[in-house]
Amino acid sequence: MYFNICSVPLFVSCFILCILLYYIQGYRTIQGAKYLSLLLISMIFYSLFYAFEISSIDIHTILIFYKMQYIGLSVLPLLFLLFTVNYSSKKDGLPTPVMTLLSCVPIITLLLVFTTEHHNLFHKSAYVNYGGLFPALDFEPGIWYWVHIMFTTFCIIMGLILLFSMLQVTLPDFHKQIYVVIIGSSIPLLTLFIRLSGLFPWEIDPSPFSLTLSAIIIFMGFTRYKLFNLTPVARSLLFENTHDGVIVFDKEQRIVDYNISAVNNRYTRSNDIGTHVSELSGPWCDILNREAGDREKDSIEIKQEIDGSYLWFNITFLPLHDNYGSKMGQMVIISNITERKYAEEELCKAIDKANYLAIEAEKANTAKSAFLANMSHELRTPLNSIIGFSDILLEGETGSLNEKQVRYITNVSKSGKHLLLVINDILDISKIEAGKMELSCDNISIHDITNEVLMACSSLAANKRVGLEQNMDCSIGTIKADRVRLKQILYNLLSNAIKFTPTAGKVTLNIRSDDERILFKVIDTGNGISEEDQKKLFKVFGQLDTANNRRYEGTGLGLAIVKKLVEMHRGTVWIESEVGKGSTFAFEIPVK
Question: What value does the mean pLDDT take over residues 266-271?
Answer without folding.
Answer: 76
